[in-house]
Every structure is written in structure tokens, then in C-alpha cells.
Design brief:
Largest sheet: none
Strand content: under 5%
Order of helices and strands: HHHHHHH
Keywords: Membrane, Transmembrane, Transmembrane helix
Radius of gyration: 36 Å
Number of domains: 2
Mean pLDDT: 78
Low-confidence stretches: none
Shape: elongated
Helix content: 55-70%
Structural class: mainly alpha
Distance between the termini: 101 Å
Number of strands: 0
Length: 161
């Protein structure tokens, strides 16, 4: 009987030891799973970043040196709309959309176009003196200060382009 008691204690002791080992192994496996999941997430993020960088580099019009990309967003919108002619000036509304009754500038000297506003409109002469470039091309495609001056000029006129 003493022999059975010792066997019982031995089995019980082995069972508890085995349980503790299994629990330790489970925790180690669980930690390993978490580490593997974190590594996979990091790899996916790195792959996404690499894809974005490659797409930006492959875009034909993206050039970090282009002053257009150095403008604040609101000025980029103004310059883009003036460059493309898709803006809220009377000329676009009248000729392209047929919405406005006339394409005339408030000064009545010409149609309200990008060229008229930036170059010839007598109503804007006092504001135009602040914009240094003399050609329309420089006002829309010049260096950073040229573009900033053009966008600031449009904001000062109160026109929504």
C-alpha cells in the first residue's frame, strides 16, 4: 500500500509538472504567434510603402523640383484651374457650359479669361503691379515666387476660379 501511495504521489507530481510544462509551452507558442503576426504586418506595411514610392517615381508628371508641387494646396488649385482653363470665369461658363449670359469681363474690355485677368484687365491694374512676371507663361509656369504671386493676385481680386 505504501508502494501505491508513492506511485500515486509520483503520478500526481508528474501530472502537475506536465500541466505546468504544457501551460508554459502554450504561452510560448501564443507569444510566438503574436510575434509572427507582428512581423507579417510589418512586412506588408513595408511592401505597401515600396509600391507607393515606385508608383510616385513612375508617374510621368511628378517632379519634386517642379515649383507647382511646393505650393500650398489652395494655390495649386488656383494655378491648375488657370492653366487648364477649367475655372469659374465667365468665359468658361459661357463658351463651354452655356450657363452665363455673357463671357464679358466686368470692365467690358474683353472676355473674362485667364489671359485677361492676369494680363490686361484695367480693373486689376492696381493689384497686378505686385505680380512681377510680365508674360502669362511665367505667371502660370514660372518659379515658385511667380506662382505664389499669381495665386495671391487671384485671391486679392476676389475672383473664384
Amino acid at each position: 500500500m505504501a508502494h501505491l501511495r508513492n506511485v500515486g504521489k509520483s503520478m500526481c507530481h508528474n501530472y502537475i509538472h506536465c500541466f505546468k510544462t504544457d501551460l508554459y509551452f502554450y504561452r510560448q507558442c501564443h507569444n510566438l504567434k503574436i510575434i509572427i503576426i507582428i512581423i507579417i504586418i510589418i512586412i506588408i506595411i513595408i511592401i505597401i510603402i515600396i509600391i507607393i514610392i515606385m508608383m510616385m517615381m513612375m508617374h510621368p508628371h511628378f517632379n519634386k523640383a517642379n515649383p507647382y508641387y511646393q505650393l500650398q494646396r489652395s494655390h495649386q488649385v488656383i494655378i491648375f484651374r488657370l492653366r487648364t482653363g477649367h475655372n469659374r470665369l465667365n468665359s468658361f461658363f459661357h463658351t463651354k457650359l452655356g450657363i452665363d449670359a455673357s463671357d464679358q469681363c466686368p470692365c467690358l474690355s474683353a472676355a473674362l479669361t485667364t489671359d485677361n485677368i492676369l494680363q490686361t484687365c484695367p480693373n486689376c491694374d492696381h493689384l497686378r503691379s505686385k505680380t512681377r512676371p510680365e508674360t502669362l507663361h511665367r505667371k502660370l509656369y514660372g518659379n515658385l515666387s511667380d506662382l505664389q504671386n499669381s495665386a495671391a493676385f487671384i485671391e486679392e481680386t476676389g475672383l473664384f476660379v
